[in-house]
Amino acid sequence: MGTSRRTKQREMKKNLLAAGIVLVFAVAVFSINSVGKFMAQRVIDPLMNIGAKQEEKVSTETVSCKKTEMFLVSAGLFEEKAEAEAAIKNVSSAGGGGYCLKTDSGYHVMHSCYKDKASAEASVQRLQGTFKDAAVVTLKVDKISLKITGTSAQTETVKGCIDFLSAATETLAEVSAKVAEEELTSLKASGELQKLASRQAESERALRELESSNTFIVAMQDMMALCSTLFAELPQSSDAEFNRKLNYVSCAFACEYVKFCSDLE
Fold first, then answer.
1. Claim to verify: residue 126 and residue 163 sit in the same structural domain
2. Tell me, what DSSP letter sits at residue 79?
3. What pLDDT, on a 0 to 100 scale, did the predictor assign at position 212?
4. What's the angle, vertex CA 176, arms to CA 170 and CA 182, rounded to 5?
5. Which DSSP letter does residue 56 get?
6. Residue 77 and residue 21 share a domain
7. What CA–CA distances, in Å, run from 112 to 74, 134, 177, 242?
């Protein structure tokens, strides 16, 4: 009986040891898997994982914000915000947008926005009699490529929104310049602006339908909300301040779009 009891005790110790080894191994495997899952979700996976239902097919694609260069005419650069705010009234009275852009150098009060540098420089020449410190301010962002993980429909939505923002920036500047040069009537310009507003509403609705908490999507939703606010400022064809309001929106849109792209870098 004594020998049998000792034998059972030895067997029990072996079993406990084996169970302990298995437990340690299981904990180690669980920890490795957890770390691996964390790395996959937070480090290895592309940053822009939109998220989709389990049964939906997802893939990773590259979308790009194209290289953008806009030329804004500043009526003056001011060190203090109060000075800039006072200058806004004078710029607005002269038909300029009066959008205030804060930079490392100070506060620029923007008059108008252009797609090409030559047109901006010509505008500066015309304005220097009224605003002696008028100058061209170049806003530039290089092409930015982002990896998006999601369904094809989600990826197309993101691409469509980025394309809209880029196209709207250029269209607003182009329409504004043509109206100023009397190459486009306010009535026809209003038609072009209405098309932009409709596209913006469609893009914003499509983004909401993604129901994604991805930081990039949220940032784009915020940008679209800002676009909606700016488009609400667009004038009707009969508005006496048509040119000024259009200048304001085109300057504001260009500044905010370039900032949005720069924040993605």
1. no
2. S
3. 86
4. 135
5. S
6. no
7. 8, 11, 8, 13
Please provide the size of the chain in residues: 265
Number of domains in the chain: 3
Residue 237 lies in a domain: yes
* Mean pLDDT, the chain cut into blocks of 10 residues (265 residues total): 52 54 42 38 44 71 90 96 94 95 94 96 95 95 88 91 94 96 96 95 93 88 95 94 96 96 85
Is the Cβ–Cβ distance between 173 and 113 less than 8 Å?
A: yes
Domain stops at, among 83, 118, 139: 139
> Containing H/E element for 218?
helix 215-231
Cα separation, 140 vs 166, in Å, equals 12
Q: CA angle at residue 250 from 78 to 116, to 5 degrees? A: 90
Task: Based on the fold, state whether residues 128 and 35 are members of the same structural domain.
Answer: no
Find the domain containing 38 and state its range: 2-44
CATH value at residue 232? 1.20.120
Q: Give the Å distances, CA to CA, from 42 to 34, 38, 39, 86.
A: 12, 6, 5, 48
CA distance 265 to 231: 26
Query: Would you state the pLDDT for residue 8?
Result: 52
pLDDT at residue 148, as a whole number: 86
Whether 218 and 259 share a structural domain:
yes
Task: Give, as one character, the DSSP assignment of residue 25.
Answer: H
